[in-house]
Write a structure and sequence with these properties.
The chain is α+β, with helices and mostly antiparallel strands. The protein contains 29 helices and 23 strands. The relative contact order is 0.10.
Amino acid sequence: MSARLTSLPRLIARRLRALLRRQVLDREMDEEMRHHLELEAADLVRTHGLTSDEARRRAMIAFGGLTRHAEAHRDARGIGGLEHLVRDLRHAGRGLRRSPGFTVSAVLVLALGIGATTAVFSAVNAVLRNPAHDDIAVLFFRGFPSLSAVDYLAIAEQQRTFSAVGAMRRGEAAFRAGGEPERVRVGRVSSGFFHVIGVRPVAGRLLEPGDDLPGADRVAVVSHALANRALGGAVAAVGRSVMVDGVAHTVIGVLPEPADALLADRADVWPALQLEPPTRRGPFGILVVGRLAPGATFESATRDVAGISERIFPLWAPAWSDRSARFEALPIRSAALGEEARMLRLFGLAVALVLLIGVANVASLMLVRAIGRAREVSLRSVLGASRWQLVRLFAAESALLSLIGAAAGVGASALGLRALIAFGPRMPGLTASSLDLRAVTLAVVLALAASLIVGSAPVAMLLRHGTTALSSGERAIGGGRGARWARSGFVVAQFALALPLLAVAGLLLTSFARLQRVDPGFDPANLLTVRVSLPAGQYADDAPIAAYWSRAIARLRDLPGVREVGLASSLPPDDFGTSNDNFNLIDRPASPGMPEPNAPWPSASGDYFAALGVPLLEGRMFTHNDTGPRPVILVSRAWARRYYPGESPLGKTMVRGGCTDCEPTTVIGVVDDVRYSGLAGSLEAMYSPLAEQWSRTLHMYVRTAGAPNRLVEPVREALRSVDPSVPLDEVASMEERMYTAVAEPRQWAALLTTFAVAALGLAAVGVFGMLSYLVGIRRREIGVRMALGARRATVVRMVLRSGVAHAIAGSAIGLAAALLGTRMVAPVLHEVGPGDPATLGLATAVLLGVALVACWLPARRAARIAPMEAIRLD
């Protein structure tokens, strides 16, 4: 057996060389056969005394003809099968060239389907299937990947299931490397973070134990892009001193590009995270990751860290009442992707459905084309073509068609992947996706599968009925039960596959439309926003910070066209918990061991509400005197209704952040609702006065008299005049930020709607092609009906009835599938359920409406048939 396997490559190579040298081999065989023929004829002359002509004739008879021997000789050399394959492909190519319309349309449909599927496969593989992240866990707490310094230090010291543990705190900071300051993304990380992620520097080194200890020298790692843009390249960047948030840091290393598909490419600068010994359980906001040790699982890691939760609870119980909160270890993609993973899988399913619809469409066209080649099949049968030769011919045509479609699809997939990266939703890992050998292999596999489906109907009929099946033409097959069922099955399948895709797209569009109509709680028109973050090195305490904000507000108020200027620590509508805090009402405390309530808790100036146009409903606004020992807050109307329904919350007190030895906080006013947790999030909010504790990072809100974009440059210049060393984030209108707030739902809705429209169009083409063909083969029947008195309306109804019946059957099957498939998008829908009858009904109506239009065109052509002309032509 091993010897045979060893000689198999040589045998294949010899047969391929024989095929390529066919003309030489044929000439050699002819010469050899003539030589044997001459020897046989000479022997007959010598032994039987025959003439030369008679001896040659008998020798020819004895050999059975040169052709048979030549074929046998070629088969003996092992090239007969390859010759048949090449000949079949050559015939198939000529046949496809004779039908350019069919060939081009079929190749385009297959290329688009295979290309889109291959591109999405590459994206899904890059985002969801990277084996380098299979053993990386994110530590969750209370359902969020957000822990405190207490939690991280306890886990790093006590865990037993991770080979490495790291922490990261995301943010933004002022960065300066000798030129103008700029705002960059910062990820402050512990020394173990990069060991968990598994990246190596392209220059220098990464953080080591000791770099993250309090009091150690300030060092940082930078991204490859920042090193090239601002530091003269990776090698030149190492050892340079840069200013991060006004504090000097030494660059010790440069990350590769991209550094990591999930976490390490989300920042430009990576300073060491130097945590001081904590004094209370909060605040939260640290991402903790760990790489599983050999033999550990996510389940065992969860049990390990859950035990740590139990052990540290008694130490912080006075300030942390939630005994039920546990740490849990989840795969890193759960934190990095969230619902995006679900949507990406749904997108892949949508593309696969479009491919199936396209394949069914081409298969239906292939069947119609095969039946229309009745005369060709009949002629080939008369000339001696066997059933298997005709089967090979049709199989070669479908295979060649699919392979051409796959070749074009690979090119289309490269363009599609670039378009998805450029215009698709922002997902970690997507930018690193590319076409590779697996993607090309998938395209070939899809092509082979498509060829089997495309060529199945005519091949099955040939195998079942023999050469008379297709050679008998329309009477035997075109109107036969088998052909009708095959054509109807392909058309019904297209509608059944299109409806779930159309329903999902309809639900996402409905959700997006309702999300756009959500009231954010303020008027975004004529409102300009700018985020300013003061460097920590220059603004270390409240006095200089308060002085900067006072001067900045004064400069902006002096600008022509400015009506109001306000400050706040949060930016609605997408703050997403960055300023959340827990609290405990003194008159209604949480039960022992139960979690305290939690809500967005930004800091704001009194002018903030005037700038946004948020009215005061009860009580009073903040004043400059709200800086005393008794802290005060404003609450939203939704908060008041939840915690004090039917009564006023004014004067109510609470303990904030688990600080039991702090002075209680008192409610002094109620303002209207503003959304901070997304447009689909809660309306509850609580506000502290900025003067109580000034922040270095704040959002400025400028209410203008006219178009806010006209004041972008004046606002920039005014803020630069206060302190030119403070970098400015993008200055943008609130309307632009509101547009960005719904960018991701809009992108998913647009992508799936595009494929739903493509599926709908393919289904319409399928029913149009089937009915056009039926009208053609029933031309004589229709002519006879009209000659006997049938009205044009009757003929139209007859054709419409046939097409609409297929659409209804497909819609019924598709509706059942849609009721199951739409549940996949339930978590991302807003104010619409997955089984929304209005959306499903509209999707079905649109599908049937398109089918009716597709049926109307061939029906109208049928009604215009001239009776006598149809009978005479037949």
